[in-house]
Amino acid sequence: MVTQITRGIKISVLTSFEGTYFKNYKLHFAFSYEITIENHSKDSVQLNTRHWEILDSLNNIEIVDGEGVIGKKPVLKPGEKHTYNSGCLLSSPFGAMSGYFNMINFTTTKTFKVIVPTFKLSAPFALN
């Protein structure tokens, strides 16, 4: 698990290899990840958008921007947390993801970035 705290918001990430399959005559490596967002600040916040950079070991990079996470824009009061699961496909058995969430602080009405720590994606059969 990797964790990072930005402005009182703690992000924790767990990853898992889900398997391989062929799509359009090409082998893909499927990974899942679980992200927990914890509000350790004194203000209520809301996650509005996300930004991901997904990199595989073949130097392919995919940028993903979108509203919320898995169709939700969670509001977190002080002390609350939100956990969700998602996944990605890579063209190689190794890779990494990094990014950030754009959030709004309801007390100040200001938006801010919460950094998601870089997390590695690796198929266990490919490790020495």
TrEMBL record:
<dbReference type="GO" id="GO:0070987">
    <property type="term" value="P:error-free translesion synthesis"/>
</dbReference>
<protein>
    <submittedName>
        <fullName>Protein ApaG</fullName>
    </submittedName>
</protein>
<dbReference type="Pfam" id="PF04379">
    <property type="entry name" value="DUF525"/>
</dbReference>
<feature type="domain" description="ApaG">
    <location>
        <begin position="3"/>
        <end position="128"/>
    </location>
</feature>
<dbReference type="InterPro" id="IPR007474">
    <property type="entry name" value="ApaG_domain"/>
</dbReference>
<dbReference type="InterPro" id="IPR036767">
    <property type="entry name" value="ApaG_sf"/>
</dbReference>
